[in-house]
Amino acid sequence: MNDRQHSEGTMSYLFEAGALKRGKRSGWWIAGVKDPETIAEHSWRTAVVGAVLAMMEGADPARVALLCTFHDTQETRVGDIPWVGRRYITTASNEAVTADQVAEAHPAVAEGISAIVHDYENGDSLEVQVAHDADKLECMIQGLEYLQQGYPQAQEWVDSTRAKLKLPSAIQLADAAQTMSIAEWQRTYLR
Fold it and tell me: What residue intervals traverse the membrane (predicted)?
């Protein structure tokens, strides 16, 4: 491939990544949420939560944010399959989907993104552990927000994701989140 083809392949990946801004997190429909967050919204806050957790845990915040940013990019091709659906569907691994997504991209881009996804899926470093807890904590926080917006079925999501947290800082933040409300932080910090 020549430089132009690599540039076009890389741009195709970037256009595809933009579809995450339109793809809804379908699991929230099960909880009755009529207009749930998008996959991109989830990934963005997961990256922020991950960087904060990394700071608290002594991990590399930039590495964690990078892992979190790319953790759901495959959903442009396979969709957001909620946990209840995963026992009925067999899909390609996230690494295989990523390989297809970046197959035409610049070699350094393809190698870099593939390595990030591989590490997220298979690694055991502190950064990977933090990224996994960030994904769960973000889901729990979103569930708490949906609870406060009048979606009582979100409680099951809050409870199940909170139970999966492993790191001390993630558990501490979960405890704090469960004692606060959206209105409380607005009154306190938006004066």
Answer: none
pTM, rounded to two decimals: 0.93
Distances (CA, A) of 90 to 59, 82, 85, 86: 34, 13, 10, 7
Find where tokens 């910090």 sit.
189
CA distances from 75 to 3, 72, 91, 122 (A): 28, 6, 11, 18
Q: How many domains does the chain have?
A: 1
Look at residue 91 in the predicted model and tell me its pLDDT: 78
Q: Express each pLDDT in 73-130 by its tens digit.
A: 998 988 777 777 777 877 788 999 999 999 999 999 999 999 999 999 999 999 999 9
Angle between helices 126-148 and 154-163 (to 10 degrees): 160
Where residue 180 falls among pLDDT bands split at 50, 70, 90? Answer: confident
Domain that holds residue 181: 3-189
Q: What are the percentages of helix, strand and coil residues in the chain, rounded to 5?
A: 70, 0, 30
Greater pLDDT, 141 or 183: 141
At 131, which CATH number?
1.10.3210.10
Q: Which residues, in sequence order, are CB contacts of 172 under 8 Å at separation 6+? A: 56
Helix (H, G, I), strand (E, B) or coil at 147: helix
